[in-house]
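Problem: given the chain below (108 residues), write out its structure.
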Amino acid sequence: MFDLLGVRLLTTGETQLATAFDKGVKAIDSDKSSHLCVCGAYGQGKSHSLNYIKQRALDQNFVVSYVNLDPRQVPFHDFKSVYRALMGASEAVLAPLTSCSPPPNPWT
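Solution.
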């Protein structure tokens, strides 16, 4: 579990990450594809950056999945395994149902 406040406050390059995320959202809104490749050596903050992007997506009501595509666990070429892993790791922030009226009472 990551400390969400720590991820937000301790993110180096937050402007670049936010810009990349917003550019991707804008592309998707225009029916275009988008991708972001996060590369770096051990300890350079790849997981931290991905958690920052994940939290930003959740804050904007996206559904997210965080899956390690290790060929020994979830081989990328096996679509069923990838799909199962993505669906199993899905997260979303659900808004409370405040504007809906209660269902009708069938007994009245």
